[in-house]
């Protein structure tokens, strides 16, 4: 009996970063207007290993990582550092095919896809679900850096064109921007710094 093939699913993610919270503790009624709902999730400890090869992937706007033994690829689809748009890949065959197409490197997940480790660190993650769909996370890395994100995800079943993905992410980004504007009391102003940027800066200082 032939195995059943499920239609492909594309996971889109839009995120906007923030430096820290502007309130001592994030609560539903911590400012005006109140969150419609706010669910606190269990605190997580995450161990990330990031991989690349001569910056071939990062220069193409892609990050390959192994997070708690699960491979993930985040492929940039527009936006800026602060407000980013990604397509996520979680299937090792899809990740392998993307790496091969982007770098011409053809290797297995058991061999880290032929890539080299470029960063490793642990993150303590606090997270909430606000208004039933917006994920708010605050990450504190084991090297002392902190950064937060407001995320919105959407799964598209079946084949999707690049234009359809871009249209969906544009709407998602507008919704995240409106959410953060509405609840501006919760988020500190100022330019956030990403965890990898902070990690590499620390590595350079350590080797100076």
TrEMBL record:
<keyword id="KW-0378">Hydrolase</keyword>
<dbReference type="GO" id="GO:0050333">
    <property type="term" value="F:thiamine triphosphate phosphatase activity"/>
</dbReference>
<comment type="similarity">
    <text>Belongs to the ThTPase family.</text>
</comment>
<dbReference type="InterPro" id="IPR039582">
    <property type="entry name" value="THTPA"/>
</dbReference>
<dbReference type="InterPro" id="IPR012177">
    <property type="entry name" value="ThTPase_euk"/>
</dbReference>
<dbReference type="InterPro" id="IPR033469">
    <property type="entry name" value="CYTH-like_dom_sf"/>
</dbReference>
<dbReference type="GO" id="GO:0000287">
    <property type="term" value="F:magnesium ion binding"/>
</dbReference>
<comment type="function">
    <text>Hydrolase highly specific for thiamine triphosphate (ThTP).</text>
</comment>
<keyword id="KW-0963">Cytoplasm</keyword>
<feature type="domain" description="CYTH">
    <location>
        <begin position="13"/>
        <end position="168"/>
    </location>
</feature>
<keyword id="KW-0460">Magnesium</keyword>
<dbReference type="InterPro" id="IPR023577">
    <property type="entry name" value="CYTH_domain"/>
</dbReference>
<keyword id="KW-0007">Acetylation</keyword>
<keyword id="KW-0479">Metal-binding</keyword>
<protein>
    <recommendedName>
        <fullName>Thiamine-triphosphatase</fullName>
        <ecNumber>3.6.1.28</ecNumber>
    </recommendedName>
</protein>
<dbReference type="GO" id="GO:0006772">
    <property type="term" value="P:thiamine metabolic process"/>
</dbReference>
<comment type="subunit">
    <text>Monomer.</text>
</comment>
<dbReference type="GO" id="GO:0005737">
    <property type="term" value="C:cytoplasm"/>
</dbReference>
<dbReference type="Pfam" id="PF01928">
    <property type="entry name" value="CYTH"/>
</dbReference>
<dbReference type="GO" id="GO:0042357">
    <property type="term" value="P:thiamine diphosphate metabolic process"/>
</dbReference>
